[in-house]
Design goal:
Layout lengths: L3 H7 L2 H13 L15 E5 L3 E6 L4 E2 H4 L6 E3 L5 E13 L5 E5 L1 E4 L7 H12 L9 E4 L4 E11 L1 E5 L5 E20 L8 E12 L4 E3 L9 E3 L4 E8 L6 E14 L5 E2 L3 H4 E13 L3 E4 L6 E7 L6 E3 L2 E8 L10 E2 L21 E7 L7 E10 L8 E10 L4 E7 L15 E4 L13 E5 L5 E3 L4 E3 L5 E12 L1 E2 L4 E7 L4 H4 L2 E2 L2 E10 L4 E10 L4 E8 L1 E3 L6 E3 L5 E3 L2 E11 L8 E11 L7 E2 L5 E12 L2 E4 L2
Parallel strand pairs: 27-28
Antiparallel strand pairs: 1-46, 2-45, 3-45, 4-5, 5-32, 6-10, 6-21, 7-20, 8-19, 9-18, 10-17, 11-16, 11-20, 11-22, 12-15, 12-18, 13-16, 14-15, 22-31, 23-29, 24-27, 24-32, 25-26, 25-29, 25-30, 33-44, 34-43, 35-46, 36-42, 36-45, 37-38, 37-39, 37-43, 38-42, 40-41
Length: about 625
């Protein structure tokens, strides 16, 4: 992985071989010779031909491992692989219907009976009527009082709910007018008795309705503990039957719907009215019969006074919700963006801390979401089985920006640095997804893996809520002792330079000074002009020991990395000396391993490899054919 390009570019076979040939021919011939008739096949020495190529500069990892859209450097010059994408988390809770019907509340008993009026007439006139009297004369403007009590249940329903509503705490509704209208309810209807005043009036509203603060008519108070309207003294005008006006803006439910509707008890829907003293006055002289009564009726008119049934318009609902959320997310394509050194089939990784980061903007989302998923590595080799990892359930909180990490260790890796506020989960098997690099990683977030948290939230019905979630897969180049990566590179075509030569072997030697914390196993394959391996040329591999990866500071305060020196030899014996003539390219196969250490090491762009005392030698008897 590390040394191929710089090392190969500095080993120029053509320069070494042609230099030797030129020395042999200089000043040996003049222009009287016909070179076409001269046999120019010659031996260049039985001890081979050796050329010292010197030293290289420090070959920085940054010079070898290029950054691109997928391989990047973080702020500490550490390498990491990144794949990114976006998905949306969409949710909506469907609306439902509310209907409430105007109610006419009659008193449980008549306010004034024959006996009530009889007592009033006797008191005002001083005349005593017998017990068996069946009618009495009533004078105009006679006042008589009685007690009023009555109750009636409202006709109210909430229906049409789907399974995305599991519990309703309350509904915030548009401000809805409520008028309490008082009418006489005499029998017979033409009985000339009319209400003049009422004292100590109490009207208990249904417990599910809430009066909007500040909307209650003057002269009335509200006892919030019992949801009861109170008025100590009320003068009544027949021409203006509305005795009280208010607005309701909330319906309190505190229950789960059943079969798509909310079921209320009669007690919750009951309106009660009481008045300690309702005073009637006669509007003309008349005779009252024994069966005649005077009473009142309270009409409760809600919303539009021209209709008997009104819809309460729900603005917001507070409750527990379970809308369907199935975010779609494209597979994380791995193979399309891998650098060359990770594309070989022999690559094996034991990444120390791969990290999956989700950033979700929930600033305009009123609900929190529980989040989990399943990641599956998919291979295209027809052999390797899929590997899956389950992400443990975590949360995206409502009305805020969320950053969530799934990491191999307790400290997530983020090349941008960890934010002040984030959530995390440790997934110990996360690196198994990339131990053999897959073609892609499928991300499954469907079928209830993303769902609203089971707690109270306030939402608008029928509104589509959409949250953006950006995901990033970070694979920092920090490896445990299971790393094996392969880098292949080659010389340019050298056939035109070596086709004239024959040799028994090739030997390349150097001292590798390695500050990179990876063992490098180097081998060479000779390929012919047909692109195939030349089987008769077999190199012995060489190993460059890993550097420690530790930084050191010199006497001047400059920081660098510790260096490990390893003498290396790459040597090939040719089964036929003439095979050298067939060589077109030398393919350098470099395997980087981290299998012999118990520590994990980071790859940093300023780590380096230096090749010192590089020598190239053609071994044994070397001949050159310049015919």
């Amino acid at each position: 992985m590390i040394m191929a390009n710089p090392f190969i570019k500095r080993i120029l076979f053509s320069g070494a071989l042609c230099a030797g040939a030129a020395l042999m021919l200089t000043s040996c011939l003049d222009d009287s010779y016909d070179l076409n008739k001269v046999d120019l096949t010659m031996g260049l020495g039985s001890d081979g031909l050796a050329v010292t190529l010197g030293n290289t500069e420090n070959i920085l990892l940054n010079d070898i491992l290029d950054t691109d859209e997928s391989v990047k450097l973080d702020t500490k010059n550490r390498y990491y692989l990144v794949e990114e994408g976006n998905t949306n988390i969409n949710m909506k809770v469907d609306g439902f219907s509310t209907n409430i019907t105007d109610t006419k509340l009659n008193m449980d008993a008549a306010v004034l009976s024959f006996n009530n009026v009889k007592e009033s007439v006797e008191a005002s006139s001083g005349v005593k009527f017998g017990d068996n009297v069946t009618s009495i004369p009533v004078s105009k403007n006679l006042a008589s009082s009685g007690r009023a009590n009555g109750q009636q249940a409202l006709d109210f329903e909430v229906t049409g709910m789907k399974t995305d509503v599991t519990f309703l705490e309350y509904l915030a509704i548009e401000d809805t007018d409520v008028k309490l209208m008082l009418y006489t309810a005499n029998t017979p209807a033409n009985l000339p008795f009319g209400v003049i005043s009422m004292n100590n009036v109490e009207i208990k509203l249904p417990s599910i309705l809430r009066v909007k603060e500040g909307s209650l008519a003057s002269g009335w108070t509200l006892d919030n503990s019992t949801n009861t309207l109170k008025c100590s003294a009320l003068n009544y005008d027949k021409a203006k039957p509305a005795i009280c006006a208010l607005q309701v803006n909330k319906v309190v439910l505190k229950r789960a719907p059943k079969d798509g509707k909310v079921v209320f008890t009669n007690d919750e829907l009951t309106v009660k009215m009481s008045a300690q003293k309702v005073t009637f006055g006669a509007t003309q002289d008349f005779t009252m019969g024994k069966n005649d009564v005077a009473s009142v009726r309270l009409d409760i008119v809600i919303g539009n006074p021209n209709t008997s049934k009104s819809n309460l318009t729900v603005v917001e609902a507070t409750g527990r919700f379970n809308p369907e959320i199935n975010p779609s997310i494209n597979p994380i394509n791995i193979s399309n963006s891998l650098p060359d050194f990770l594309q070989d089939d022999e690559v094996a990784l034991d990444v120390a801390n791969p990290t999956l980061r989700f950033k979700s903007d929930f600033t305009n989302i009123p609900v929190g979401v529980k989040f989990s998923g399943v990641l599956t590595s998919v291979f295209n080799d027809g052999v390797t089985a899929k590997r899956s990892v389950t992400l443990p359930e975590k949360s995206f909180e409502n009305n805020k920006q969320n950053v969530l990490y799934y990491a191999q260790t307790a400290t997530p890796y983020d090349p941008e640095g960890l934010p002040e506020v984030y959530d995390k989960a440790v997934v110990p098997t996360l690196n198994t997804l990339v131990s053999k690099l897959p073609e892609k990683i499928d991300v499954d977030l469907a079928n209830g893996k993303v769902k609203v948290k089971d707690q109270l939230y306030t939402i608008k019905l029928n509104q589509e809520y959409a949250a953006d979630a950006a995901y990033s897969v970070f694979v920092p180049f920090e490896f445990n002792n299971g790393l094996s990566i392969v880098y292949n590179d080659s010389t340019n075509s050298i056939n035109s330079d070596v086709e004239k030569y024959a040799a028994e072997g090739i030997r390349i030697s150097a001292v590798a000074q390695n500050a990179i914390p990876l063992d490098l196993n180097i081998n060479i394959e000779a390929h012919g002009v047909d692109g195939r391996v030349i089987n008769g040329i077999v190199f012995t591999p060489a190993k460059v020991n890993a550097g420690s990866g530790k930084s050191v500071v010199d006497a001047n305060g400059a920081s660098s990395f510790e260096v490990k020196e390893t003498p290396i030899v790459l040597e090939a014996t040719l089964s036929d000396p003439n095979l050298l003539k067939k060589v077109d390219r030398l393919i350098f196969k470099v395997r980087a391993d981290n299998k012999e250490t118990t520590e994990s090491h980071e790859l940093v762009s300023t780590q380096f490899l230096r090749m010192a005392n590089i020598k190239l030698r053609l071994k044994g008897a070397v001949t050159a054919d310049f015919n």
